[in-house]
Amino acid sequence: MTLSTPSPTAAHGLFHIKAPSASAEIDGTEIESTVRDILGRVAREGDEAVRHYSQAFDGTAPERFEVSDAQKQEAVAALEPEALEDMQFAIEQVRRFAEAQRQTMLPLEIETLPGLHLGHRIIPIRRVGAYVPGGRYPLLSAPVMTIVPAVVAGCAEIVACLPPNAHPAMIAGCHLSGATRIFRIGGAQAIAAMAYGTDSVPAVDKIVGPGNAYVNEAKRQVFGRVGIDQLAGPSEIYVLADETGDARMIATDLLAQAEHDIRTRVGLITTSETLGRAVQAEVEAQLATLSTAAVAGAAWKTYGEIAVVPDEDAMVAYSDQIAAEHLQVHTRDAAAFAQRLSNYGSLFIGTKASVVYSDKCCGTNHTLPTMGAGRYTGGLWVGSYLKVATHQWLDDEGVAAVAPHAVRQSAREGLEGHRRAAALRLGLA
Questions:
Q1: What is the pTM of this model?
Q2: Can you give the pLDDT at residue 137?
Q3: Domains of the chain in sequence order
């Protein structure tokens, strides 16, 4: 998928105060080949290959990949009291929201015709793998977002993998969030280990969690053998604002997300040229004193966007075309305007709602669709760890109602085995 660009069909009359100068999508040819080699070698050689790639890519290969119980306790004990409090707060908020979501997923039994009983069950995935990225900074919320919903879903085993040089607090986060086993393995080799299994790492049924381009490509290549949640690209934030928008607040929120990575996509779509130019000036002013300006500034320079549109209809159209991962609404009546939006990862309604709250601790999940995927999917949630599996049962009355249709349709299709199976229950085979 390519970067969304100005389109007269999306928003007639749109013009840019600042346009992105490049697509955030990268050429994955070399990555694809490298990952294929990693997956193949791990599938053949198991732990030996994992150790080789850990040393090659992370500069270290632990003698024992799995984190021991003693190491988990040490990591928790090493947390500062406030850090522990903040992590527990985030865990509780994510848990409460996941539990509320789970309650909306109900088993079903219905008799659609006399004697024809259809239904479904909600079944937890038995063993899931959570990839926890090391990242540019120790993202202590990352294990919370991937592991806690799995606990709420009722998964029997939750395997967590994180880079061997990840901050020790990340181990504490995995443990406190509910991981049953934790491994110090990162990168594509971690995805391979969880997909194929090794002597140390059990093969899982589904892999979730964001990572770098190599992790993303590895998830793509193992999909089918295992399930995956989604393919995550660089982080994104867009703000929708009319003339009531606050330039300082908007600029602050854009830069807060931009400091994630130099490929972060950040943008403002507004009906006010005055506001757009004020935000541009405010971004530049804030970068002068921002400690993470080397990253945030690079993201803003390359991928930053300020688009001016003629009216709210055009704002909605252009926003839905982009389908941003994080979408903030700063309009006069934000709640009403939000109802008009369809394509996004997560929505932040009104000026008091900030992406940072969701990123860290308010309860909604921060693992969200990027690069336009919000057009067809939502983010990680408790339902990502559950299967909706259908069933049926019939009595004689149900067979009498269904079988004749199945017999005739099978015959028309030339599927004699099907016809016989349907007819048998009518005593006609």
A1: 0.92
A2: 65
A3: 29-229 (3.40.50.1980), 233-378 (3.40.50.1980), 395-424 (no CATH)
The residues annotated with a catalytic role in the active site are 325-326
The segments of the chain whose pLDDT lies below 70 read 1-11, 26-27, 135-137, 429
Residue with tokens 């029997």: 156
